[in-house]
Amino acid sequence: MEKKAIGNASSDDDVLEQLGYTQELKRNFGLLGMVGFSFSIVSSWTAVSGVLIIGVESGGPPVMIWGWLAVCLVTLTVAYSMAEMCSAYPVAGGQYSWVAILAPSRYARGLSYVCGWFMLIGIICMGAVNNFVAANFILGTAQLNYGFTIERYHTVLVAYLITIVAVVSNIYLPHILNKLSKAILCWSLLSFFVCLITILTTNKNKQSASYVFTDFQNFTGWGASYATALALLQSAFGMCCYDAPSHMTEEIKDARKQAPRAIIMSVYIGFFTGFIWLIALCFCIGDLETTGATPTGVPVIEIIYHSTKSIAGASTLTSMISIITLVAANSLMAEGSRAVYAFARDQGLPFSNTLSKVSSRSVPVHALLLVAVVQAAFNSIYFGTSTGFNTIIAIATQGFYLSYLMPLLSRILAHFSGKKTRLEGSYSLGRWGIVLNIIGFLFLGFICVIANLPSVTPVTSENMNYTSAATAFVMLIAAIFWITTGRKTFTGPDDGNLLDVGRHVG
């Protein structure tokens, strides 16, 4: 069959066909539903709440606030770059597919394969981290009411339960995902305003403006510059996962327009809610050491309780946040399964033929089950050591950021080599695209470096950051599978003008 240029394709299904794929999933999502889906995962104000201890120890309030502002501004360059690529190539593979299309032809398949592995590790690890955060909020609320000691195995077992609920919901209730996404967007914004107004009005012992915006606090043992760099990881974690719409493009109506919009809108909403929430938390934070050592295990619960002076009030507000994290678990399960499905469809994984199957409900059930099992395995690490699970948090962030970095690098190389100087999507950045690509690439590279740094000194085997070792392990696994099977079977969209029709059918 003779192919048209992608830019002339008349429908989402035409674009997908020209990329060499057959439409198998149902297009249920509109713009509002996808913004809700994406923001339920990004959900920056709750995400920074879950990892607040990083900023508390590494610079304190001013670094958390100004670091958030800086990270979000630079994140927009990445988000706009990814939105442009998503508009041009709206396929569930997202980042790794863009690498396959844009990278130098000689290296495209190999780089795409590695990118796919980092993408999957990032998404699945982030799901495990979110389940861990959700479990912490649930147990922290219970501890506030009943005063028991939270053990590590409590957290793991609750995380398991969250994983089970998420996978069952995705398998048997896929038709509610769009409506649930719209509902959680409204719930998240409502919860944001309720929590914000409540702690600001009830807290009678607020910190001074100088404490919030200028007083540097450092409990890491490292110098000020080093601690400041470490604190940026809190913001990097909080402003992450905005690629989610790219993995759902085969379930979005008018995906070339609406998926990029959802990426950008979720970042802006996350930017402003996270910024305002951080400022409020810092004014209400109380004593840093007391907040960091709270028996609830969640500093934000301590801040809310310190503000309201009411167990019932604090429990209500943290329960509102808990609901958001539970829906995020459901959304991350859906995103992870679509990413696994897409990678398996391109023969990028062992047992790809099984993992790429779609059920009668238009759901990749085997991919969902794999994501659930791997999430649970990552959560199991916390049985033995908190340090090991802290590494999972860093891997989640670095996995995402490396998977973002590689398509931006490919886009830059494609531009300067003349392979692709302009993308054919309806969401085009024009001449500013390459500038944003370069800024975003440099930012992602910087975050990937500091994600590997030890967080406290003196460095011991207990507090060492093992992210670099874990990253090397992922690369080793990817290399083994590439050498044994991937280089023979992996197919992804080649260099832009697409594979023969039917290559991916069946």
UniProtKB/TrEMBL annotation:
One annotated GO molecular function: transmembrane transporter activity
Q: Which domain of life is it from?
A: Eukaryota
Give the GO biological process terms.
amino acid transport
Transmembrane parts of this sequence: 29-53, 65-83, 111-133, 153-172, 184-202, 222-242, 263-288, 308-329, 363-383, 389-409, 429-453, 465-483
| Pfam family name, one | AA_permease_2
Localization per record: Membrane
Where, if anywhere, are coiled coils annotated?
none
* Name under which the protein is recorded: GABA permease
Protein species of origin: Dothidotthia symphoricarpi CBS 119687
